[in-house]
Amino acid sequence: MSLRTIPEKPTDARWTDSQWEAIQAEGSNILVSAAAGSGKTAVLVERVIRKITQPEEPVDVDRLLIVTFTNAAAAEMKTRVGKALEEKLKADPANLHIRRQLALLNRASISTLHSFCMNVIRTYYYLVDVDPQFRIMDQNEGAMIQEELLEELLEENYAAENNDDFVLLADRLNKDRSDDSLREAVLRLFQYSRAHADPAAWLQEVAEQYRTDGSRSIEELPWGREMMQQAETSLAGAVLKYENAIAAAGQPDGPKANLGLLQEELDTCRRALEATTWKDMQQTLAGFTFKKLGSKKEADAAPERREQIKNNRDGAKKVIQKLQEEMVAENPEDALSDIAALYPSVRELCRLVQTFSERYYQVKQKRAMMDFSDLEHTCLQILDFEEASDHYQGFFQEVLVDEYQDTNFVQEKIVTQLASGDNLFMVGDVKQSIYRFRLAEPDLFLEKFQRYGESDDGERIMLDKNFRSRRQVLDAVNYLFRQLMDNDLGGIAYDREAELKWGNDQYPDIGDMVTEVAVIDQEDVADNDPQAAELTNARAEARWIAQAVSHSMQNGWVTDQETGEKRRPVYRDHVILMRSMPWVNEMMEEMQAYGIPVYAEVSGGYFQAVEIQIMISLLQIIDNPLQDIPLASVLRSPIIGWDEEMLAAVRLEDKNASFYQCVELAAAGTSGMQPRAEAFLEQLEGWRSRSKYEPLSEFIWALLEETGYLDFCSGLHGGKQRRANLLALYDRARVYESTSFRGVFRFLRFIEGMKNRKEDLGTARALGEQEDVVRFMSIHKSKGLEFPIVYAAGLQKGFNVQDQRQPLLFHKELGIGMKYVDPKQRVSWPTLPHAAIKHRMKTESLAEELRVLYVAFTRAEEHLTLVSSMQKVEKKFEEWEQKSAQAGNTLELHDRLEAQHAFDWLMPVLLQHAEVDPLEQQTVRNRSDNSSWKVHIVPASTLQIGSVLEEAPAQDWLQAVKDKEEVPAGEEWDTEVRRRMYWRYSYEEDTRHAAKISVSEWKRRSEDPQAEQRHATTFTSSYARRPSFMMEEAVSPAEKGTVLHIVMEQLSFTGAPDEERVDRLLRRLTDEEYITAAQAESVDTDAVTAFFETELGRRVLAAETVQKEVPITAGVTGDGLENRQLLQGIADLVIQEADGRWVLIDYKTDRVQSRFPGNPKQQQEFLRERYQTQLDLYRSSLESIWGTAIPEAYIFAFDGMQTIPMNGR
């Protein structure tokens, strides 16, 4: 590593030493570990600015590749760089290099990696034979194509002969009545394989892992090694518990009778821990027996010591018994036999996935589509060609990667191939790697973090100062994660180097501040709260938070970001962060009951909205009316408006027929429902006919308008949200039509597929998050953001382990874990690969859950509150006390791995703190810290339902409105309501007319008063320029007139022009693309020159003042508009003669000679009648604007070379 000397930091620099190093370091690959709130974006921007503005060897901004995680981050980065360059230019306006950088900024490669990959593919498409005009495939469109392809693939294999491996795989994965498990397995493994640089090679590799020939022992297999390591971790935890028990027994007040037994069990545990083979460990564990602890009383033995020994020994016993279940029962020979027996099924599954992948790619290539994974893999293919890789490595002088901890294997390889070996600058924080579900690989960051710190392969820089949060928040976060996060869980040791350092000393003093923890006790709530049945954990937490927000608004303080002074909080200063959002609707209801405005961007609930269900039902019966439930739904809905009795009457037409057939019978009958049924069928038939040829989005919009359903829903309670949902349906139909699918049937299949996959679109936004509201937000959505006051809620919710319960598991290193299924006996059991992968997934999942907590807590700027609710709180505290007592510098690893939810981590750590004693047991705590805590235990029965109780009268009014009953109101409200309801716009008549009107339109209306289109909403032009590909055709009469006007405007009136001068002008106009060659040829140059030989032409040449193409905008009166309508037009020519008289002249090219041959008088009368109104308007408008008379007005008709006086008004 040959680092250049870093320039000395200026004394007035605002950067810390580590930030300055990150800005200036060069000469090797650099990894910046940037803690939360450490200003990494500012550092990244400053590094870019200094590179492109440094005096020696400055770099052009487009020769830097800056990769961000999101489009929003890329836009922000580009904006910041732009602003910084503008500031530099203000200081040095003559600097041409900075001006050049600003010009290059728009083409700079500051984007997400996917955007960059797209540019690479469009540049080098010919190397990999793809269509450069490809489009990005919609995710749901891709899902539909996948389902169709998978259907074909499975049917093909079901029908194939001698396909025993496939049949066996299907039997092992499928349930009795469905092959959904097989379908899901293929799709899941396909998606998982795409995170690898070479998916086909990875699939082949993981299949071959199951090929065993008996030459390798079980511990030599990757799964055996994994299980041995897991067992060693658990045994180490058991050893620690035994040592704690023995230490307690050895105390002066400890019971000595059981020391021998405890020592014996400890020795056995240590032998198991030292075992090097599966069989040795298995035999040692099998011989482990647990004798009963002696009950002999010792006078000097303290009861708490006896309890301490019992708790530690019970914990160790539980660990060992679990290991006995996992390892003793697993005979090595049987385990190897199961693996060998599963090899054909695993190989067949990988073959299916590879075939599916190839066919899917072919379909996408045929339709010129790619998904985001294709962008990465295709770009990687291109970079394997030296032509492309050499170009980019030579062009980009540095590759900068933001959020490096969230990259996967494919992205890592792309970045590596773009860099030239020592010009890679990576920024990230492994403690904030929370995108495992997107197959992000924090191990890539960790590997470099360790290697760069221990060797000269690259440089590691730590940004550890936090400029976001108050010291109290940082102290709290550091206290928790010092004892929770280490190399074993979290991936990195949270030591002095990794912990957050306080960097922002600008916060004003607002007194003592503590980090609060609220534990809501749900025990016995039913006896104290009549609404206990509804008081779920979600509602209980929401009530407590609502009260906390109200108290904060009245008594709290936050810092104003603009002034730096303290102020009272507003609603938008508060955010409620949750791991997932299924509780959000309940919590929002409770918060609203307290009168607190809330906002949440939820990802579900759209298809459950009543208005959406009705519209989908309408589309279903338009597609196929023989569907009873959708048909009844539509008939009963406000769209049709039948009531229950009407539906029953129709149903009775024929109890055995479908409901649609009953409607047909009613329409053909003589009952009272006949007119309604007939009208409905006629309307439905019209809709069905139109659905076959109208674009789907336009059809849905027509349905909403014709039925009035959009307006109806807008007027209901929650109308704003309902309207937004319906408009979103229209928008989503438009997006759907941008895919390769069309029609109502496909759209309904698309929606049904989403429902089957348990996907939802999320209700449409009706309230913006920038408004003054308390926001609910998932922790993942909050990453990169910051909030003055943070409530982390739902911390007692169990960790999501659904992915670990699958019968088929996948792992990047351990491959595929399949349960053994005997198709004949229909019994199954876990195999060694399945158990090993399940263990690894659990550890990695818990590590990510810990990092998710870190992200949540570090969003807080000034106040952090942790909230949970549970039953049997005292018992839980006893369990946490035991774990707390056993902990050393960190909570024991086994206890962390056995945690069921976040509070199983947090409370044992908090219970070590000197200030924390929530049960008031006067327990001596052994850990003092700068952090300050306040833990509440809140009985749920004390949480009232809030302001709803105080607003019963308002509820009565609301119910009266819903029941359409009269609402009593005082005279003051009665007057105000009437004033608002009967308000009229003062200028209502004006709304029926256009604000502007052309002269020709005014003339047309004045000649035909009935011609006004009062409801016209769009402007249409009688002449529009034809597209260039049509210009080779004959020039239209309208175009000839326009060209002649251009010539008369551009022609100089200094002296009578001759034909050569006119031709020269036409050539110039053609060269400058004012007109085409064909249009130039259509100009009658003789007529142009002849005009100046007429008396009117000579007056023009002799005029003192000549004004061409004079624009006119004037208020006009007509039909009671009181001069509020604007007239717009252009006068061709206005001249002022030597005696001061003004003359108005208008050119006309109407073909009158062929219309009235040999009759000049009739020609003139025709033109005068046609244009008199126009000339009168021009004259009166100009006289009004200029304040002078225009006594003469003329038309010059080029067809016949006639001067026609237009002096009549």
UniProtKB/TrEMBL annotation:
CDD domains: DEXQc_UvrD. It holds the Pfam family UvrD-helicase. Residues 497-784 form the UvrD-like helicase C-terminal domain. Gene3D superfamilies: 3.90.320.10, P-loop containing nucleotide triphosphate hydrolases (3.40.50.300). Its cofactor is Mg(2+). It catalyses: ATP + H2O = ADP + phosphate + H(+); Couples ATP hydrolysis with the unwinding of duplex DNA by translocating in the 3'-5' direction. Its EC number is 3.1.-.-, 5.6.2.4. One of its GO terms (biological process) is double-strand break repair via homologous recombination. GO terms for molecular function: 3'-5' DNA helicase activity; 3'-5' exonuclease activity; ATP binding; ATP hydrolysis activity; double-stranded DNA binding. One of its GO terms (cellular component) is cytosol. Keywords: ATP-binding, DNA damage, DNA repair, DNA-binding, Exonuclease, Helicase, Hydrolase, Isomerase, Nuclease, Nucleotide-binding. Residues 13-470 form the UvrD-like helicase ATP-binding domain. ATP binds at residues 34-41. InterPro entries: AddA, DNA_helicase_UvrD-like_C, DNA_helicase_UvrD/REP, P-loop_NTPase, PDDEXK-like_dom_sf, PDDEXK_AddAB-type, Restrct_endonuc-II-like, UvrD-like_ATP-bd. Coiled coil: none annotated. PROSITE patterns: UVRD_HELICASE_ATP_BIND (PS51198), UVRD_HELICASE_CTER (PS51217). PANTHER family: ATP-DEPENDENT HELICASE_NUCLEASE SUBUNIT A, UVRD / RECB / PCRA DNA HELICASE FAMILY MEMBER. Belongs to the helicase family. AddA subfamily. NCBIfam families: addA_Gpos (TIGR02785). Heterodimer of AddA and AddB/RexB. The heterodimer acts as both an ATP-dependent DNA helicase and an ATP-dependent, dual-direction single-stranded exonuclease. Recognizes the chi site generating a DNA molecule suitable for the initiation of homologous recombination. The AddA nuclease domain is required for chi fragment generation; this subunit has the helicase and 3' -> 5' nuclease activities. This is ATP-dependent helicase/nuclease subunit A. The gene is addA.
